[in-house]
Structures are given as C-alpha cells and as structure tokens.
Specification:
The chain is an all-alpha fold. It folds into 2 domains: about 10-115, no CATH class; about 115-160, no CATH class. The chain has helices at about 10-15, 35-50, 60-70, 70-80, 85-95, 100-115, 120-135, 145-150. The chain is globular and about 50 Å long.
C-alpha cells in the first residue's frame, strides 16, 4: 500500500482505538486461527492512525501470517479494502495456504498452551524482564497470559511472600 492510498471510512469505523483500548485476545479466533482477530485489530488501527503502542506485522502477527501462508502486505491490503470481520474471515479462509483443519487446530492449541519456558531464550529473557516491570508480582507461565493479564482480560495470582 502506498502512503497516498485513501482508507475507506468503514475501515476507520471498524478500527479499535488502541490508544485507549486493547486489541482482541490472542486466544480469540478468526477464520479458525488464534492470533488472527488480534492481527486484524492492529492492522485496522494502524491504517486508521489509532494503533498507539501496538504494531501490525510484529513477530506475534507474523506467527499467524506465516503459518497461514499470507503475506503481511496482502493481509493489509485486504483490510484496507474495508472488509468486515465476516468478510476477513472468508478472505483468510480463501487465501490461507496451510494444510488441513487438523493442522490448524493443532497449531492453535500449541499457541494457546505455549509456556514461556518453551520460547526462544531471547524471548524468555525479554518476557522475564517485561513481566517483572509491567506485571509486577504476578505469576505468569503461559505466553498468551502475558497479553490477557496486561490487557485486563485475565487476573493472575500474586506471588506470595509466605
């Protein structure tokens, strides 16, 4: 997409203001994929200039896009065309190049269940520091919990000093 591309008004009306709110949980599915709805929220917000601290096509979004076999540019163009959630659901299903429904279900479960200890060392170091700074005193074991705790969809127990 070029910088001069005009964004349809319905993209702006569908976009969440991520300067004051949050994208959907990484657990929320779109077109059968976890991460997809969150990716869509961030893309719409970026196109509308309301992304705040969020970034479309970040490593988290790319996990979904790479697995689905969809380029970030193609996804962004589909969003910029003003598609609704239902239309994006269909578009993703039509353009995804990965295999069977079983593969998608397996991938979804692997993503939802992924523990921080299963991530690359560099990511573990980052999250260790991030949780300590942004979620002080919280017990966090699963990767998606970091987002859901920070974005106030999930409460995590405090570490007890007892």
């Amino acid at each position: 997409m070029s910088a001069s591309t005009t964004i349809p008004e319905n993209v702006r009306s569908l976009a969440k203001d991520l300067t004051t709110g949050y994208p959907r949980s990484p657990r929320t599915k779109l077109a059968g994929y976890v991460l997809a709805a969150r990716c869509l929220d961030k893309c719409r917000a970026e196109l509308s200039g309301t992304q705040g601290e969020y970034h479309y096509a970040c490593p988290l979004d790319r996990m979904f896009l790479d697995f689905a076999g969809i380029s970030p540019e193609a996804f962004k163009q589909a969003v910029a065309d003003g598609r609704s959630d239902e239309e994006m659901d269909r578009w993703i299903r039509e353009h995804a190049t990965n295999g069977s429904k079983g593969e998608v279900v397996h991938w979804n479960n692997a993503m939802r269940d992924k523990r921080i200890s299963e991530l690359d060392t560099k990511v573990q170091i980052y999250l260790e520091e991030y949780v300590e700074e942004c979620l002080p005193g919280r017990v966090v074991y699963h990767w998606f919990d970091v987002y859901d705790i920070e974005e106030k969809r999930l409460d995590a127990p405090l570490i007890s000093d007892h």
